[in-house]
Amino acid sequence: MRYKQLCEYIKQFRSIGLTTGSIGCSVMGRELYFVKVGNGGRNIIIQASIHAREYCTTTIAIKQIEHLINYNLGEYTLYFIPMLNPDGVEMCHDSVDFNNLKANANFVDLNTNFDAHWGQGAQNQQKAGLANYIGKYPHDQPETESIVQFTKKLSPVSTMSYHSRGRELYWDFFAPYFDMRRDKEIALVLASYLQYKVVSSQNSSAGGYKDWCIQQFKIPSFTVEFMPEFYSYPIPQEAVLQEFNLSKNLPLILINCLS
Predict the structure, then answer these.
(1) What is the CATH number of the domain that holds 233?
(2) What whole-number distance in Å separates Cα of residue 217 and Cα of residue 204?
(3) pLDDT digits over 197-219, tens only?
(4) For 69-81, what is each residue's pLDDT tens digit?
(5) Dist. CA 199–CA 15, nearest whole Å
(6) 3-state per-residue secondary structure call for 92-124
(7) 220: cis peptide before it, omega within 30°?
(8) Distances (CA, A) of 189 to 14, 169, 192, 200, 238
(9) Closest by alpha carbon to 103, among 125, 81, 71?
(10) Is 174 helix (H, G, I), strand (E, B) or coil?
C-alpha cells in the first residue's frame, strides 16, 4: 500500500464516523495518521510500517480496522498507526534500489532509534544506510519523536508492532520478573492463535518501539512478524491478504488476554 492509498482510507474512515488524526509529520512532511477504534478508557496502540520495505503491514492494519469497526470493544480503545514511515514506503515503491530499505528518508532505522538500550543491539550500525542505523541520538527523527509523544499522551496498557517476515512473536525486554511472567503468558496465547513461534529478544533487540514501551511503561508490548520467511520483498498482495485472514482477530485476542 502506498501513502496516497492510505490517505484515501483515512478519508473513508472519517466519513463513516471513525476518529482519525495525525500524531505528527515525517521528514518529508507526510502526515503520520492514526485511526481510533472503540471508546473505552484502556488504550492499545498498534503501529505498522515502521520499516519501509514492510509496508504490507499497513494493509493488514487497514483490513483489521475494517474488520473491527462493528465490534464492541468494551473498556478498550485501539489506536492504529498504519504507516509510521511513509517516506521510506514511498522510496521502496519508487525505486528497485530500495527494495530492502528499512530506514526513513534520513536513512535512520526508526526501530533502533528509541531510548531503550539505544545503540546496544546486535545489528546496530553507526552510519546511515538502508537498515540498522541508530541515528545521532534517541528520538532524533520526527517519526520516532511523534510516536513517543503520542504514546506518552495515551499511556497505553499494551502495544503491538507489525513487521514482516518470519511468523514469529517477540515479547520481552528486560522487564521485572513478574512482568515477564505476565507478558510471556499473553505472548503464548497470541502465538497460539497465530500459529507463530514465540521468540525472546532480550539478548538481541535494542532501541525498538516495543523495547521502549516495556521499559517506559512496564506494559506488555509485542512485535509481530507476519508472513513466512521464504518471501522476498515486495511481498505479493495475495499472500498479504491470506495472512490477514489468519490474523484478523489478533487485537481481540490481545484484549481478551488483558481483560
Answers:
(1) 3.40.630.10
(2) 21
(3) 999 887 777 899 999 999 999 99
(4) 989 999 999 999 9
(5) 40
(6) HHHCHHHCCCCCCCCCCCHHHCCCCCCCCCCCC
(7) no
(8) 33, 11, 5, 15, 27
(9) 125
(10) coil
CA distance 186 to 3: 33
Mean pLDDT of the chain, nearest integer: 95
Q: Compute CA distances 12 → 6, 17, 66, 155, 220, whole Å.
A: 10, 9, 10, 27, 31
- Contact between 154 and 43 under an 8 Å Cβ cutoff? The reply is yes
Determine whether 78 is exposed, middle or buried from the number of CB atoms within 10 Å of its CB (0-12, 13-18, 19+). Answer: buried
CA atoms within 13 A on the CB side of 8: 6
30 lies in which domain range? Answer: 3-258
How many CB atoms lie under 10 A from the CB of residue 100? 12
- Which of 57, 61, 63 minimizes the C-alpha distance to 44? 61
Average pLDDT over residues 121-125: 86
The C-alpha atoms of residue 192 and residue 206 are separated, in whole angstroms, by: 26
What is the number of structural domains in the chain?
A: 1
